[in-house]
Amino acid sequence: MPVIEYQQFIKAPVELCFDLARSVDIHTQTTADTKEIAVDGVTEGLLEEGDTVTWEAIHFGIKQRLKAKVTLMEKPNKFIDIMVKGAFHSFEHTSVYEEAGGTIMMDTFQYKSPFGPIGVLADKLFLERYMRAFIVSRAKALKKIAENTQ
Predict the structure, then answer these.
(1) Tell me: the pLDDT tens digits for 91-103?
(2) Could you write out the DSSP letters of every residue in 25-51?
């Protein structure tokens, strides 16, 4: 099961970074490359514990839907969301925020690909690299928005 970890320092208060990261509207803005939109569940505003959201996006040229649920919310330091339905066999995304003269945002994304050995091969060939680039791109976009919001 691949585990992707990424840290991003942001020159902004932890509360702002936390709220931007759980904003459906900002998520859509930071994933514009994949044309990601919320189509069911919470479709705008801030996600809270227990909320679900269904995202529609284009990955690898294919329109896909993924339903995620927020399973833990410890404001303003941590939230966890998991896949309820979608292309992966499973995934869990943990996002942690620490005050450090700004904010250190730490994302951990662990997933299991579908299709057994074929999925493992896809991970090695391209999927893990693609997911890491997606997570890094979103973190950098959040940083830019947070630092320009103040």
Answers:
(1) 999 999 999 999 9
(2) HHHHHHTGGGT-EEEEE--SSB--TT-
